[in-house]
Design a protein that fits this description.
- GO terms for molecular function: glutarate dioxygenase activity; iron ion binding; oxidoreductase activity, acting on paired donors, with incorporation or reduction of molecular oxygen, with 2-oxoglutarate as one donor, and the other dehydrogenated.
- Keywords: Dioxygenase, Iron, Metal-binding, Oxidoreductase.
- Pfam families: CsiD.
- It comes from Alkalihalophilus sp. As8PL.
- The protein has a single domain, classed as Clavaminate synthase-like (Double-stranded beta-helix, 4-Layer Sandwich), CATH 3.60.130.
- The protein contains eight helices and 18 strands.
- The chain is globular and about 60 Å long.
- Bound molecules: fe (ii) ion.
- The site of fe (ii) ion has 3 residues, from loops.
């Protein structure tokens, strides 16, 4: 048994309300299976108490109330379990879903909110003006970043690079998927990246690069960020190729080589995520991106995202 498997075993468990399993695609992630009964009861309570999406948007405390409804069904320790997994350097992520109990996308938003608020607090998403954002990828796109461009690889990056608040974790939920082939989430755990040390110990690793958002993100400020920083005595990373502004050819080559090295790494995972499932990742030591879709005039895929911090 490898060291990674031994450490992972600490979170694997079975209770009446859920099972924590190793993810079928990678030992780095867990897959948590909630019982259908628990999900049904959770949604019943949400509906009985009129917790609409709009109510959650307008009333921040309601997001914690729906989180408490989920704990009522699966047990108080569930929140701590999720936080422990996302903090755990050996893993740092999990998938979980609605197990086919609902196909209502409003209920998807509410469910994802319950999970997010068990982890901490969601940041304001300037793109949507809400605490979450839903965005579609279709055959055509007129936007100014690769987020919604279907037929391009969206390279590996971390989120929150151009905002000055912490982005400890990231949640992505599959809302809709029609006529989609390709487009998987591409994920890389920092410690699996073969050339990590070469880039993390490079003279430019601690250089402060300027990050600026494109117009669609509605973030006017600029911010200086180090690519690598200390996180619990291990490297953390902050990087996205589209929004970083190097000033010299040497800096540009460092960033280009770093991006290419990660893209080519053999440990990169292309995650399969069914509709109604979500993935949560630690944003300090996981990078994410998206594979290109195959051309289809009727392509329609929608994701929800929430980015946030742990509560202290
Ligand atoms: Fe992202």
């Amino acid at each position: 048994m490898s060291i990674v498997e031994k450490k992972k075993a600490k979170f694997e468990k079975v209770t009446e309300g859920y099972k924590v399993l190793s993810h079928p695609q990678t030992d780095r992630l867990y897959h948590i299976q909630l019982s259908k009964n628990a999900i049904e009861k959770f949604l019943e309570k949400v509906n009985q108490t009129n917790q609409s999406v709009q109510h959650l948007e307008y009333t921040p405390y309601a997001r914690l109330i729906v989180a408490s409804y989920l704990l009522d069904e699966v047990g108080e320790e569930f929140g701590e379990l999720l936080r422990n997994i996302v903090h755990d350097r050996e893993s740092g992520g999990f998938t979980l879903g609605l197990e086919g109990v609902s196909e209502n996308t409003d209920e998807f938003v509410i469910f994802s909110t319950a999970i997010a608020y068990l982890l901490g607090t969601s940041n304001h998403d300037s793109m949507s003006g809400k605490y979450y954002a839903r965005f579609s990828v279709k055959d055509t796109d007129g936007s100014d970043s690769y987020l919604r461009q279907a037929y391009r690889l969206f390279t590996l990056h971390t989120d929150g690079t151009f905002v000055d608040e912490p982005t400890d974790w990231l949640l992505m939920m599959k809302m809709v998927e029609q006529n989609a082939r390709g487009g998987e989430s591409r994920l890389l755990h920092l410690d699996d990246w073969k050339e990590l040390n070469a880039f993390a110990n490079h003279p430019l690793a601690n250089n402060k690069f300027t990050y600026k958002a494109p117009k669609s993100k509605n973030v006017g400020q600029e911010i200086d960020r180090q690519t690598f920083f200390n996180h619990n005595n291990k490297p953390g990373i902050c990087f996205i190729d589209q929004f970083v502004y190097p000033e010299t050819i040497e800096e540009a080559k460092y960033l280009r080589d770093l991006s290419e090295s990660m893209e080519q790494d053999e440990s990169l995972i292309e995650l399969e995520l069914p509709v109604g499932d979500l993935v949560v990742l630690n944003n300090i030591f996981w990078l994410h991106g998206r594979a290109a879709f195959e051309k289809d005039p009727n392509l329609n895929r929608e994701l929800l995202r929430q980015r946030g911090r742990f509560n202290q």
